[in-house]
Amino acid sequence: MWGGAPPRIPDSTSAWRSGGPGPPVQAGQALALGTFPQRMPGHPGWWPPGRVHCRPRTLRRRDPVEATGSRVAGPPPAAAAPAEVSPKKADRSGECPLRGLQTGEGQTASRGWNKGKEAMMKSARVVMWTEGETGPRFPLDEQGISQAGGVIRRVACRNVAERIAAAGNAYALIVAHAQITEALFAGAPGLVGLVRTGIGLDGVDLPAATRHGVCVAHVPDFCYDEVADTTMTLLLAVARKVLLADRHVRGGSWTPSAMLPMHRLRGQTMGLVGFGHIARAVAERARGFGLRLIAFDPYVDAPTMEGRGVEKVDLNTLLARADIVSCHAPLTQETRGLLGPKEFSAIKPGAILINTSRGKVVNEDALIAALQSGRLAGAGLDVLWTEPPAGDNPLLRMDQVVLTPHFASTTVEALADLAAKVNRQIIQYLRGEWPTYLANRAVRDQPSARLLGVGGGARAAERSSS
Q1: For a FRET experiment, which of 83, 88, 141, 282 has its CA 20 to 30 Å from that of 261?
Q2: pLDDT higher than threshold 90 for residue 166
Q3: Positive or negative: CA dihedral 241, 277, 204, 361
Q4: What element of type H or E holds 146?
């Protein structure tokens, strides 16, 4: 289907901690409990008795996430017995006492802590991100993932072969733009599931995932408002020639009539290609501008559209009648190149095209030809066939075209929503639970579903039968 999504579920937040400042200490000075009576054990600035500092500076207790890079449960390092260390020797060590003393019990305790940490890390299930060492564009819940038995790995894979190799020991995969094929599922026998960081699943081979028993989750109720707002923003920018007028003023011109021809929006017809959640949000906004609304979507019936003040039509009728054609179809084999040479030759002369769905829904060569010939008056594009575009792409040199960098989904609020739902579904995998937004639901009925074979698989099976 082109539209539809499960209902929203409450968002969760991650708890983060940080250490507080510690007292200034002189080199070689031993501190006794009571030196700072206002700082008791457990206070962020408390300094353990008998610890020796190596150089004059202000220290603070280090949080486990600073010391290890992840929040791994375990005992803190054992306190070292009081020892006399000369300032000269301490200075040569170059190490702060909180990183483990260099001699005696402190060294033994530090090594024991590191060995315990390494053992726990080796037994943890790997949550893999393969699209850069910095991770996705939102924070991952390292604490929650660690508590559920996972450890995050971030790598930068340059090609499909490197990605398959990196995912070989992965338990769960986080995917943004990477192409996930059957070869990866076959090469990662321990992969239970993946989470796509957005709505679209055009980069994931869903049938192959199901055959291999791998769950595929996404966030289908993400960024409705943001994309609808961007659609109207692009429409106004193109129809009112905002960027062209801006360049004229910056160039020293002040001639309003130089922007003609322009036409008022009220009374024009907007044609929506696809009528899912985002298109419906666009329709709500478009009515406020006095636009008449028609839509093409073979999977949505006429009564549903009429209930929202939209007339259902076929694609040819939409192209012939619409002054504004706005694309909101997902990218599938059915919709790839949906608007091609034939469609642009049938489009209403002087129409405006807006695309905030997927670049490959529109045949870019046919679009460029329609703009160059004047058949299309303008276009507002948040997505392109190839992203980012090549430097010689003709669209970059057209004044009647407004381009944005596939940013329609990007707001602080949308990314917070996305982060919560991706993190939640990763943790569900680690607990042996079905993810909230499972895209290939047929995998639940397969005995070969890999999620059923892990420790919490019994819970997953129980929930599937309840």
Answers
A1: 282
A2: yes
A3: negative
A4: helix 142-147
Crossing angle of helices 277-287 and 224-239, in 10° steps, is: 50
Please report, for residues 71, 263, 333, 392, the alpha-carbon distance to residue 74 in angstroms, rounded to integers and kept in the order given: 9, 68, 50, 56
User: Greatest CA span in the chain, whole angstroms?
Assistant: 89
Domain boundaries for CATH 3.40.50.720 within the chain:
124-222+413-465, 224-403
Complete edge-to-edge strand list for the sheet that includes strand 351-355: 311-312, 292-296, 269-273, 324-327, 351-355, 376-381, 401-403
- For residue 60, the Cα-to-chain-centroid distance in whole angstroms is 34
Instruction: Tell me the CATH architecture of domain 124-222+413-465.
Output: 3-Layer(aba) Sandwich (3.40)
Q: What is the pLDDT of residues 244-259, one digit of tens each?
A: 999 999 999 999 999 9
Mean pLDDT of 327-344: 97
For 413-459, the pLDDT digits (tens) are 999 999 999 999 999 999 999 999 999 999 999 999 999 988 655 36
Alpha-carbon distance 347 to 314, whole Å?
Answer: 13
Question: CB-based contacts of 255: which residues, under 8 Å, 6+ apart?
Answer: 248
Percent of the chain with pLDDT over 70: 71
Is residue 168 within 8 A of residue 193, CB to CB? The reply is no
Backbone angles phi, psi at 58, to 5 degrees: -95, 130
Query: Are residues 127 and 197 in contact, defined by beta-carbon separation less than 8 angstroms?
Result: no
As a whole number of Å, the CA-based R_g of the chain is 29
Contact (Cβ atoms closer than 8 angstroms) between residue 117 and residue 65? no
Q: What whole-number distance in Å separates Cα of residue 446 and Cα of residue 463?
A: 14
More confident of the two residues 161 and 36? 161
Q: Is 351 left (phi over 0), alpha (psi -120 to 50) or beta?
A: beta
Query: Which candidate, 317, 328, 388, places its Cα nearest to that of 353?
Result: 328
Over residues 193-224, the pLDDT tens digits come to: 999 999 999 999 999 999 999 999 999 999 99
Q: Is the pLDDT of residue 79 over 80?
A: no
CATH architecture of 224-403: 3-Layer(aba) Sandwich (3.40)
Is residue 243 classed as helix, strand or coil in its secondary structure? helix
* pLDDT score at 13: 33
Angstrom CA distances, 358 to 177, 295, 338, 355, 420, stand at 12, 18, 11, 7, 24
According to the model, what pLDDT value does residue 245 have? Answer: 97
Query: Which pairs count as long-range contacts for 27-33, CB under 8 Å and 24+ apart, including other chains?
Result: 27/53, 27/54, 27/55, 27/56, 27/87, 27/90, 27/91, 28/52, 28/53, 28/85, 28/86, 28/87, 28/90, 29/53, 30/82, 30/84
> Which residues, 6 or more positions from 386, have their beta carbon under 8 angstroms from its beta carbon?
359, 364
Q: Which residue shows structure tokens 């608007």?
A: 339
DSSP state of 61: P
